[in-house]
Amino acid sequence: MTGVTGAYTHSFEQLEDKLEEINKILKSSSVTNDELRGVQHEIDKISTSLTATTASLDELDADLASNRQAILQGGANLDFLRQESDDLKHDAQEMKEQITTLQA
Question: Is this prediction's pTM over 0.85?
Fold first, then answer.
């Protein structure tokens, strides 16, 4: 999960930089309506970007959980097949010994 969230660190840093820029504009004493509309536009863009990034992270987390489950299931299947293979080898060895005994 750390790798997944690490992939978006740069995006979050850019969003934080934009928010800081917006805060500087808001703190200035001569804010015009155009500046406020610009700030609102930036906030809307950042919000949309953040929502999309969060959705991507959620999807990646779901994919990761699914992949982990598939790996665990594959491991269990391999263990089962190994056990069946060992059983078949054992049965074959017993049959070979019985045939040898019958031929003697």
Answer: no
Give 4's contacts (C-beta < 8 A, 6+ positions apart): 57, 60, 61, 64
- Confidence class of residue 76 from pLDDT cuts 50, 70 and 90? very high
38 Cβ contact partners less than 8 Å away, ≥ 6 residues apart:
25
* Residue 50: other Cβ atoms inside 10 A: 14
Closest CA to 35 of 21, 20, 25: 25
20 burial level (CB within 10 Å; 0-12, 13-18, 19+): exposed
What is d(CA 62, CA 70) in angstroms, rounded to the nearest whole number?
12
Q: Which domains does the chain have, with CATH numbers?
A: 2-103 (1.20.120)
